[in-house]
Structure formats: structure tokens, C-alpha cells
Amino acid sequence: MTDKYRLDLITAIAIVCASASLGGCSTVPTAPAAFAGADDRACLTRAMYFESDRSSDRGLRAVGTVVMNRVASPQFPNTICGVVGQRGQFAAGVLSDRMRPEEEERISRIADQILSGQREAAVGDAMFFHRAGLTFPYKNMHYVLVAGGNAFYDKHPATKSETRIAMANVHPTPTTIDDLIVLANAVPLQLDPSGVPK
User: Fold this and answer.
1) Is the pLDDT of residue 52 over 60?
2) CB 148 within 8 A of CB 62
3) pTM of the model
4) What does the mean pLDDT of the chain come to?
5) Burial class of residue 36, CB neighbours in 10 A (0-12, 13-18, 19+)
6) Which of 9, 19, 80, 123 is at a distance of 20 to 30 A from 73, taking alpha carbons?
7) Domain 32-121 adopts which CATH fold?
8) Chain segment 11-32, per-residue pLDDT in tens
9) Which alpha helices (DSSP H) does 31-100 contain, by range?
């Protein structure tokens, strides 16, 4: 390899690294370029919009609470846009797809409430959720709320029977008719002969 080729290669790598991240060359997934300059309010609004079925204010607040819980946790990025833009954590297109303008005002108002410190109390410190109606056999999922089409949960060690009880306890409190319909169509938890989830 000639010195000129080596210098050109080093220069090209430096340019790529500098343009990829002001903090240096990084492999950490970042938000799409179209949303690179977004503010926290916009990122939070978009997460609440795309991650909730928008059927209830409580469901929107619950998603916003999870985002803020993640921001406060050392396990996740320390900014709202960093959390929302983290690869594989939120809906595909959360920072790039179009929102319906007629819903944006209501969701932005709830995002402002979250940014001013309001939280959905039932979520507590939970940092996870999935579509309501799905069930999983994992022993560490402690369910706290079903709202806005999602089941919110925290992770901590638990026995299989505790997981079954936690799942049963979250189902009787749907917050909207949509939540009730989702839960009515839920896939039941499969139990082994001893009565614990498989």
C-alpha cells in the first residue's frame, strides 16, 4: 500500500466518522437523518402517536411514561429522541412516518403534560410494553396496566406462577372498549398439568 493511498484511506475514514456522529465514529444506531434535529417534544409526541392505538389519553400517557422511565435509566439513551430512535425498540417509522394532523394537537398536549412531570401512575417504573392480547412464557414479566392497546410491564425475577397471576391481574382493568375487545381476543396462557404456564 502506498503512502498516498494510505493517507487517502485515513482521510476518507475520518470524514465518514465525523459526518456519522459529532462525538466520533460510532456504531450506536441513531435516529433517521430526516429527524436528526428533532426536539424532545416532537420525539415524545411521535412515540405516543405510533405506539398507542390513540383510543385513550391514559394509553398515551402510559407510553410517554415508559419513554421517560427509559430516559432516567442507565440502560437506555439519556435523551427522549435517543430513546425513541433506538433501533428495534419502537415502531418502525416512529421518527419518519407521517402523523394525521387532526390527532397531533391532542397528543402534543399530552406530551406537554409528560414533559411537565405528569406520569401514568399505574405504570410506575415499568420500562416495557407490547401489544395487548399477546402472552409470553417469560418468568420475569410483571404486568401493571393494559391501556391504549398495550400491556405495560416491568421485568424482575419471578416464578412461573407469579407470572400467571400477574397476567391474570392485568386483564380485568381495560380502560376502553378497544382494550376490552383486544383482551377478549387474547391468546390464553397455556398451562402445564401442574397449573403453571408452559
Assistant:
1) yes
2) yes
3) 0.65
4) 74
5) exposed
6) 19
7) Arc Repressor Mutant, subunit A (1.10.10)
8) 444 443 333 333 333 223 334 4
9) 40-51, 57-72, 80-84
